[in-house]
Amino acid sequence: MTGPGRRSSTFTRLLRHGFTDASAAERLLDGAELSAVRNDPVLLEALGRTADPDLALQGLVRLLEAQPGAGARRELIDTVIAAKPLRDRLLGVLGASSALADHLARHPRDWEALVTYEPRDLHPGVEEFERGLAEADDPVSLRVAYRRCLLSIAARDVCGTTDLAETAAELADLATATLRAALALARAAAPDDAALCRLAVIAMGKCGGHELNYVSDVDVIFVGEAVDGADEGKALRAATKLASHMMRICSETTVEGSIWPVDANLRPEGRNGPLVRTLSSHLAYYQRWAKTWEFQALLKARPVAGDLSLGAEYVAAVEPLVWQAAERENFVADVQKMRRRVVENIPVAEVDRELKLGPGGLRDVEFAVQLLQLVHGRADASLRSGTTLDALQALATGGYVGRSDAVQLDAAYRFLRSMEHRIQLYRLRRTHLVPEREGDQRRLGRSLGLRADPVAELNREWKRHAAVVRRLHEKLFYRPLLDAVAQLPSGEVRLSTEAARERLVALGYADPAAALRHLEALASGVTRKAAIQRTLLPVLLGWFADSAEPDAGLLNFRKVSDALGKTPWYLRLLRDEGAAAENLARVLSAGRLAPDLLMRAPEAVALLGDGDAGGLAPRGRPHLEQEILAAVRRADGAVQGVTAARGVRRRELFRTAAADIVASYGTEAQPVEADQGALVDLVGGAVSDITAATLAGTLRAVVREGWGDTLPTRFAIIGMGRFGGHELGYGSDADVLFVHEPREGVDEHEAGRAANAVVAEMRRLLQVPSADPPLLVDADLRPEGKSGPLVRTLKSYEAYYRRWSLGWESQALLRAEPVAGDEELGRRFVELIDPLRYPRAGLGEDAVREIRRLKARMESERMPRGADPKLHTKLGPGGLSDVEWTVQLMQLRYGAREAGLRTTRTRGALAAARDCGLLSEEDAATLDEAWVLATRVRNAVMLVRGRAGDTFPTDPRELAAVGRYLGYGPGHVGDMLDDYRRNGRRARGVVDSLFYGA
Q1: 980: closest CA among 947, 950, 957?
Q2: N or C: more exposed end of the chain, with fewer CB within 10 A?
Q3: Which residues contact 862 (CB under 8 A, 6 or more apart)?
Q4: What is the pTM of this model?
Q5: 508 in Cβ contact with 333 (< 8 Å)
Q6: Half-sphere exposure of residue 856, counting CA atoms within 13 Å on the CB side?
Q7: Using only C-alpha atoms, what is the Rg of the chain?
Q8: Tens of pLDDT, residues 523-539
């Protein structure tokens, strides 16, 4: 007897054997059922070896209590103590599964199924399981027999008699036997229906792949045919009744629970299609309508029940279609998109616990393996296995996957699947979530052999294997492409040139031979550069493939690497800074403009990093002017100064384009920018600031060389059009007015000559052919247009506007804003024009009619011949002209009384008009959306083609690249054009009402 406050020796022994509630365990051992063996070391040691000793002991006591009498209890306990095989199996199951303990308590003689194993029982197949289910004659008895068979599978599993793959195969074989038994019950219940038809049950998913979980939907497809002489319609109705009844027998809940749901939603048209189709109907659907994922699903199709010859005909008929799937347009993109969609649909609260669907989960391995099977299985029949681990081994044997990668993925997949099995076995519930409770994690860890610190070891191993999957599942597809062109150790199997070509074609490369040459140049050799690029390229190839121009991305990467490969910081940047490599891949494969800007000065790749030297955020006009003016001061003459200014402009244009591309495509670290208007504002503001700073630097350089520190006349540059509105695109000219005012004592003619000389030299230097893009300065919006003087004094502007100004000039001045030169002169110019652009009395009807007439004439005269007006971003319905003229008309009419309208920015003026009630919230949103979309299309065209354009490209690849920039995935170019037309129609309706008064 123990004294007060002291623990008994039994209590201590129980803790040592892994019990967590030793007090409760002591009470159970002291009970009548176990009192005779309570101190038996054999029993305690056996309990201590289970996943959960407390659970195992509770289950054993319940099983003893359920025995029909004292003799049966004595038989059970004697057998447990005397027979180690039975002891390990029974206690192992009771310590891992409360659900199977419940089954044993309801059916207390079923433990006898674990007493002895014949050699054939060690790895039973379908025939053995069919014998185990043979006596079931109704759904309830079928469930009991199913659980009895499941008990033997679980016993072999938890004792280590079978490994993961064998256990999964046994579960699939038991499912096959169960489907056959259920179909037999359905046929017995409706013999007339059975006589009319042939019905084949095709297993899909994990059951079809011979790798089933403990608890999973069993995916099936049904194929039906009429027997000779029967009416096909009646036969299909009979087959549908049989199939439905078979599904209910397995799925419905009875006093013995359910077996598992039978899911037929992988059939053609899903749940909207007929449950049973003829073979010809299946083929017609797959040949005309099936999506890529449906062929991916058919990889695992296997006839399991019913008319097996019909099932074999079905598999033989669809097999050629499966292995042609990789030839479908956007095949790889479709598969990867499906995988991303699965991840996106996981509830946020569960994503970190999701074993199957989360990043680094089972589905990543399965998708990667299936993708490779579909690409290479047409030419290599050894890859055509529905079982993931078998297919992975075949891929490694054939050189389609690196051997070390395959070994790591095999180990990770086995561990994650084992976790999934043990989680499901506990309550026999369908779940893929790692439990949160420490006790559940402890049992799970111990069931996997982690005994020292089960919870910590479980989480460490889980995270390690998930990290392996995350790291390898995409590289798995791309790394062998490098091995195909690199020097491999002896004994390694390389991907054949033809297989590499197939893989590149599947990825969307138009010239796989050129791509292989680039890979060889980048990855061959023993230099540090080649080693780092071999590490980076598998990931880069995936990012290139996610673009519309993978060939261009790879070629551009080779050019950048050739230029910078010997620069230590470049390789370090790509290797060590997480964002840099992905940002570079996006930029290099998104079109011509950004790579062209980068190739002219490859060191700008440093901007793509996420360290102190990088950063894609626009720098702002003050910062840019400071840098450019400092460079001009250091320069030896105007040419050198303007060259420096143009170099800064090129770098900043690249920074802006890169930021735009990365935000539009999205990266692992940065999701796609949802606010398209924010991207338009970013580009418009940044390019306008870059242009203004470049003009300021060029002005300073020219004045400094010709006149020293002071020009004989004050000089200001006024931004017009998109420039003044902070809305420049990548391909926009700089619309400006030049204004000057002679300094005191300076002759007006001398001042005029100086001002004109400055303008001429500025325009020349900004367009001199060089490595930097030219900046075209357009002054055609000046008074009298091209016929008028290029530069005027402030007084001349005042005289002209007072006497000769036309309506269109007042409208053009709505966008006027000083951008460079003498700030005081610029401010006085704005004071001069404000009464013209914001007339106090508003606009008369004649002026309004004239503006409407001018717009109509412009649309009819300037629309390019042969262009589709509905897709013209400037002059088409809902295009830039529609929105801007509507907004500007409101500014001219109401700008004097509404301060908010006195802005040069289109979106700002539109918001102000909405706020002061000039148009409804809905109409303002419609116009804003149309303007933003048209601007984005123009920016996209320039990024993709490297030259400006107002319409969508006609080249399919360029059009796809524009779509990718705008957020449309592969194969959705038609949706993009339809959406643009729809937006245009809606906006034109608003314009007709507000601008034309219709």
Answers
A1: 950
A2: N
A3: 875
A4: 0.74
A5: yes
A6: 9
A7: 38
A8: 887 777 787 788 788 87
